[in-house]
Every structure is written in structure tokens, then in C-alpha cells.
């Protein structure tokens, strides 16, 4: 048995990439309004039919019917639920540049296109991806009523990409999204709990458990991980203790074979605010007592997300991710954590204090690079937008990436000492951004650097699409014994 998918607002192909990881699932058609994104999608999914079009102007009859519809409508108008669109593309990046006009064009497609296509094709199932704030949209109840009137049963799934691990590894990034899973009432409801509840270690039970989502305000089941909900152990013996699911660290996305340019040797000096943030980050996070090796000590070795997560300490490990652009993220996070959420105007930089004459090794090398004295550390920095000293904009590289975006303000700092001028600095490369989004290795993204980062930042993380499509496919009678969720 095979299942076919239509991918509307497909972008660079994150949703399609995740969907085809489910055995027997094929993407028959992918459409988007940006030609470069369509070309990127076609380069990686050559067996899929493609269309570059403003989907709000397309008649649904133009496309063939498929079993499943995946749609990722434009999220800009919903990101703050204010009904006023912000021109994020007009915001300059670290060096004062803006995106090309073509990339800055906004699709006029809206959430209502999902209803139009559903009315015509009556897909067996639909998955709609958007920011969590879309549920605060004044027409959200009306939009849901539209699908309900067409005979669909709707389920809202609030899933962070760092927890999409039912049938494979998650993304090393904290990216909160709302997924609406709809299916015709005559079909079986998907077992979404089984495909979206991550594995965690419960100290109270001393066992691995399938964590359950627990809302801080049970009467309002909306929001983001940690802010509005947590994960708890399902066992009453430990009084449903709060647990932390395992994750992939931000360090997993960094290409350690790349080095930067000494800041003191730059012909184009960094902005004063950038220098201030670097100094603040170094002062806050490069104290010797805070430097703890990731590997080679206390059994801290890489582990599967299905294994119990190792005990987290209060010490920063390996390095830092620091905001480097206009951002609402204000806290630094260590490299052993997932990257944090970012908006389309945000970016991050990587700072790695190298000491005792040690050198950076490639990502293929074992992480003994970070062993022994813990001398190899990284810091990702956003270079503008802070209202404070700048240290709060630092994210340790041991944590997950902030949500990857399209602006491309990511930079890498590798300090040879605590003097800023002696630090090596570079922007994160597109392939590192792709790794942070959990695209498959070697995924080809076309365009210049900013266009590549824009496509990646707007994409769906493949692990989220993989697990949700698997849940839907199983409900439609698809045989998934080869990847069945634990």
C-alpha cells in the first residue's frame, strides 16, 4: 500500500523530506510561490511534480487529488496575533544588508487556502503547520469550523521539534509549532499520543517513561514548551514528576572543521554593540570553573534519544550560543542544550574559547576534542537587539539551536583567549543551519548564502513531519511495523 501527499507552501522541502522518510509515502505534488524554493525542492525531490504559483490564485482543480495534504501557510500575519504584518525582510542583518527583493515578496496565500483545497479534493487527512500564535487569530474558530463543516475531525498538536523523536532522531533545535491534524470522520483517529510523546528519564521511578504533556493552565491548552506546558511522568507513584525528555545538543549541528577570522585582523570591524555582547558573553561564560568537558569525563558520551538523558548540571558545557541579530531571545544557552527558538530576524553566532594551544577538530572526530580539561568551548552570538549588557543574548553551544530563521545573522566566535580582539569569529554556514533544522546530510539548497538561510529558516523540521505523517498513515491503514513508535 502506498500513500500520496500534496505539499502546499512547500518551501525548501522540510515537510516533504520528513514525509518520504515514512516507508511507502510519496510526495506527488509540491507548490510554493518563491521560484528559488521550488527549484531547491525539485533538486532534492526530482520525482515530485512542482508548481511555482501564488496558491491563493490557484484553482484546486489544477492539482490532482492525493491521500494526504500537508500545508504550511504563511505565518507572518499570525506570529504576534495582532493583525498587522511586520516587514521582517526590511530589517538589516549584521552587516547592514537586506534580502533580495524576490525573497522579500510575501505570499498572499492564507489559512483559507487549506479550506478551499480541502473542499474540492476531500483529502483523507490533512496536516497544517503554523506558529502557535495562529490559534490566537480572531478567525481561528471560523477556520476550524470550515474544516468541521467539510466532515473533518480536528486535533491540535503543540509539538517542539526537539521532541519529535518517535521514529528517529529529533532536531537539535527548540522550535515550537502548532500542527492541526484533520481527518475525515469516516476514518480512524490517529494515535497522536503514541507518536508525539517523547521518551524521558524519571528520577522518581528510576526508569525511562513515555512523558505526557501537562498544561500549566489545564483550561487553556495552548502555547509553548516550558512557558505553557511541561512533560510529566505518567506514573502516579512519583506523583507525576516533571521530566525532561532527551534531546540532541546544538553542538551536533556545528562544523568544527571550520575556523574564523581573528577579530583584531578584520578589515571591516564588528559593530560596537556586537563587541560589547562578545565581551559580556566571554566574561559571563568563560570562567574556568564553568568549563566542563562534554566527552571523556564522568561517562558523558553521546547517547541515543531513547536512552535515559544524563544528569544535567549547573555548569556550562562546551560553549555558548549567543543571539546575533534583532531578537526577542535574551538568554545564553550552553552547547549541551538544544538551540533556542528564533524569529525571521534573528540569528546566532558560535564562540569557542580555545586554550592550552588545542585546536578545533572536524565533526567526524570523536569529541575527545572537548575532554580532559574542558578547554574547548563555543559561543553563538546575536549581534544586535539587546537592551542589556549583551551577556543575556548568549546561548551556550551545548544547548539546542534557537529556531533557525531566514535572515542569516549567525556568526562563529573561537576565542584563543578572553581578549575579544584575539577571538576567531565567523558566521554559521548554511550547511550548519541545515543540520540545526535536521535536514538530511547533503541536502542541496540553492541560491546565495542569505537565500539559503532564508529557505532553511522558513522550513518545517523534517522529524516533525516524519512523525506526524507516520501517525496519519497508520490511522489510514498503512503498515508501519518497520518504524513503529516505541
Automatic annotation (TrEMBL):
<dbReference type="GO" id="GO:0009307">
    <property type="term" value="P:DNA restriction-modification system"/>
</dbReference>
<dbReference type="InterPro" id="IPR029063">
    <property type="entry name" value="SAM-dependent_MTases_sf"/>
</dbReference>
<feature type="active site">
    <location>
        <position position="75"/>
    </location>
</feature>
<keyword id="KW-0949">S-adenosyl-L-methionine</keyword>
<keyword id="KW-0808">Transferase</keyword>
<protein>
    <recommendedName>
        <fullName>DNA (cytosine-5-)-methyltransferase</fullName>
        <ecNumber>2.1.1.37</ecNumber>
    </recommendedName>
</protein>
<dbReference type="GO" id="GO:0044027">
    <property type="term" value="P:negative regulation of gene expression via chromosomal CpG island methylation"/>
</dbReference>
<keyword id="KW-0680">Restriction system</keyword>
<keyword id="KW-0489">Methyltransferase</keyword>
<dbReference type="GO" id="GO:0003677">
    <property type="term" value="F:DNA binding"/>
</dbReference>
<dbReference type="GO" id="GO:0003886">
    <property type="term" value="F:DNA (cytosine-5-)-methyltransferase activity"/>
</dbReference>
<dbReference type="InterPro" id="IPR001525">
    <property type="entry name" value="C5_MeTfrase"/>
</dbReference>
<comment type="similarity">
    <text>Belongs to the class I-like SAM-binding methyltransferase superfamily. C5-methyltransferase family.</text>
</comment>
<dbReference type="InterPro" id="IPR050390">
    <property type="entry name" value="C5-Methyltransferase"/>
</dbReference>
<dbReference type="GO" id="GO:0032259">
    <property type="term" value="P:methylation"/>
</dbReference>
<dbReference type="Pfam" id="PF00145">
    <property type="entry name" value="DNA_methylase"/>
</dbReference>
